[in-house]
Known about the structure:
This protein is an alpha+beta fold. It has helices at about 15-25, 40-50, 60-70, 90-95, 100-110, 135-140, 150-160, 220-230; strands at about 5-10, 35, 55-60, 80-85, 110-120, 125, 130, 165-170, 180, 185, 210-215, 240-245, 245-250, 255-260, 260-265, 270-280.
Amino acid sequence: xxxxxxxxxPFSAKKNYQAFLNLLxxxxxxxxxxxxxxxxxxxxxxxxxxSTTDIFVAVxxxxxxxxxxxxxxxxxxILAIFPAGSGNGFSNExxxxxxxxxxxxxxxxxxxxxxxxxxxxxxxxINVSGTGxxxxxxxxxxxxxxxxxxxxxxxxTTFLKYRPVEITFHSDAYxxxxxxxxxxxxxxxxxFGNNAYIAPHASTVDGLAEIVLVKKFPIWYGAIFAGxxxxxxxxxxxxxxxxxxxxxxxxxxxxxWHLDGEYVEINSPIKVKVQPKSLNILx
Length: 283
């Protein structure tokens, strides 16, 4: 496996990356790997090894995967994944699990396919990104020790205080949707992570982004909304609107965003654009 490298985020999976590394070294003789502690370090490593590597394996969560994918978009290099994050939405949607033997068999088979990615202004998104409530949740969540319980706790406390954001679309085709929303999500796949399906009809191969507009709902509806997400039954209602678009532009009165689960500030105006079949991913 000389044409394969493993890029490991040591801060994922409660910093328990050593167990993965020990198992990898038992399975493969002298595997090529890199322990990354910064985005710039990851970028430099990929650039230095680009010509000698065909498959780059991201070992981490959606943020780690996105940082590796960013360097592989619009090339013939292949992205592979060993999920080690708190939500693992993108790996769930692309059929990667935590079984190292499964991954090594896929690498040996060396089959891949092209999938879509998204741009939010100049930023890459491969899974689900958003602004409004969930952008604020991620901002607050990053101050905790992570984990599913802390995510639910952070979501509830943020919801109780959160005021809807104002969204204005730049096209007459969508101006009927101008207004105040709890959140707006930009989906390339169906789920945030942890099998919470915010965009049940999204696809990585249809050339479209799924825009999910959610109006603030009463607290009693929260359990119903969550139940619909976790059962893949979220549908259009007086609280939820879906728009399937190749690109869209709008203004929102907040800078709080998350890109594939990582907090970032993005200034309006916002342009979301699909990059069809731009990322080569291992099957």
